[in-house]
Amino acid sequence: MASESAGVLVLRGAWGVGKTHFWKSCISEHKESSRRSYSYVSMFGISTIQQLQLSVFISARDLKTSGQGKPHVMSSATNKLGQAKGMLKGAAELLPESWAKRVTFAIDSFVPHMISNLLICLDDFERIPRDGMQMEEVLGFVTSLKEEKNCKVVLIFNDAELGDRRAVYQRYREKVVDVDLVFAPTVAEAADLALPRDHLFGSLIREKLEILGVNNIRLIKRMLANVERITPLLTDAQQSIAHMVISMTLLLTWVELDSSPNRPTLESMRKFNSMASLITREHKKKKEQPEEREAALWEDLLRRFGFTSFDACDEAIARVISQGFMAGSELEAEIKKLKDEANAVEAEERFIRAWRLYHDSLDDDEAEIVKIIDSTFDAAAPRMTPNNVDSTLRLLRNLGRDGLADSLIERYTKIRGKEADLFDPDNFHTFGSIEDSKFREVSERQFELVREMPTLSEALREIAKGKGWSKEQMAVLSSTSPEMLYQVFKTSEDGRFTSMAKACLRFADDPTMAQIAENAKIALKRIASESHINKLRISSKFDISTDT
After folding, report:
1. Which burial class, exposed, middle or buried, applies to 531 when counting CB atoms under 10 A from its CB (0-12, 13-18, 19+)?
2. Which run of H or E residues covers position 10?
3. How many CB atoms lie under 10 A from the CB of residue 44?
4. Are 299 and 271 in contact (CB under 8 A)?
């Protein structure tokens, strides 16, 4: 860059790999050593050589003295031409229209003679408008810049997008181009270009980019933008949670934006289960179809990435990426659930330490054990079964700590009290025997407070299915009057009253529940008495006398 010799450098490669980013980094790094002024021009939208010349002229600037040395990028030839005309706007307004046109023509004639000894970057070379200047014209202009104007010229483009112009470029490349470089950075090199050196999750991001094989800097920057959007929600989150959320953000951004045909779809990820896919593949190994082999590739990639299955937090991350903002995604709530669960696990580990001391130590450490149980119980309670609580209560009572034991029962009930199944006496055997009498008493009382009772109609519909009944359903039926059954039978839809009535009559032979059947008979006889047709209906459906 510091050399005075003219020349043409080509920097080509796929879209998004960072060609322009790399070149601008070089400009910034070497601006102090450059003795040339610099002009950056995007070829996008430039359709004539005159517009290109004017753009190069207007964009020229001194790298050493202009701000941070960042080139001024004009997005269209129209804007550039407008700048030039603006310089003479005052004069043109004072001249007749015919003279104003001559001024514009004079600018077009004047500019080429002012371009010399420049460092020029012509970016987006492949995007020259099809209905504009020819490739030969542009390459001829570049040659004149090098040979007649002592300019250094850099051409940046995606050669895969040259199309039918590739043959023209190949024909003139030897004469025009001095150095032809393919820019194809490795994943690590792309990460070096895109990632801030001190990024909080730099190591993790590099690891995941390697697995995905992403060297597209534009895509990496989109990934980073989504990471930055989500990072504030990870304040105080455990490292494992932060890494999981960041990893899924990278993965789902890649799925959303990458153009590779071999990546999974969001829908296929929702259905993916790491263990299940391994088992399924083992069975299909000898008769895989082409689409199954393709799926196997991305399934292997997901496993190497560390993805096992899609959950509610992943769904929320996908919504953030898709919609581009946080509102309505529910991600904050999902991350909070993960934090709470992790905190509960950590608290449970601290609580278990008391039991390890009790079982593994012979020291006089009763006070320490009791202190650990008391201080960690509330945080550990969300993951504790009634059996865990019962064992702790028995230990405390054996140590003469009845006051603390009673306190733990009250605290556990307050923390978990809305979980009816947890306090259902019929479920106690699920967790093991509950021996503490006070804990059993409080649990039974709490269950009566929070259990959800079905409506009469719901209870009858479930019993009518013939799969047995719950004590809640029987409690509802046992407290039901003939009037209540009459109302349910009369208002039932789709003929369900028949199956519901038969469900009630089924209890006639059980002395403890015979009253349910008797109440149903009274309700059915009342319906039969209302009309002649209802009398026929009831007598034909049920084995009961309808005579009054």
Report:
1. exposed
2. strand 7-12
3. 15
4. no
Residue of 322, 384, 316, 319 lying closest to 354 (CA atoms): 384
Dihedral in degrees, nearest 10, Cα atoms 290, 294, 296, 300: 160
pLDDT at position 91 over 70: no
Strand order in the sheet with 118-123: 61-62, 37-42, 118-123, 152-157, 7-12, 179-182
- In 17-84, where do the E strands start and end? 37-42, 61-62
- Assess whether pLDDT exceeds 80 at residue 83: no
Q: What φ, ψ does residue 152 adopt, rounded to 5°?
A: -95, 130
pLDDT at 104 over 70: no
d(CA 511, CA 313): 53
CA nearest to 498, candidates 543, 547, 545: 543
φ/ψ of 309, rounded to 5, equals -160, 160
Contacts of 469 (CB under 8 A, 6+ apart): 459, 462, 463
- Nearest to residue 270, comparing CAs of 308, 232, 325? 308
Closest by CA to 412, choosing from 373, 448, 451, is 373
Which tokens go with 108? 């077009």
pTM, two decimal places = 0.57
What confidence tens digit (pLDDT) does each residue in 394-419 have? 999 999 999 999 999 999 999 998 88
| Angle, vertex CA 14, rays to CA 11 and CA 19, nearest 5 | 40
Tokens coding 87? 């310089």
Token duo for residue 241: 């949670």
In the block, tokens 């920057």 appear at 221
Element (H, E) at 37: strand 37-42
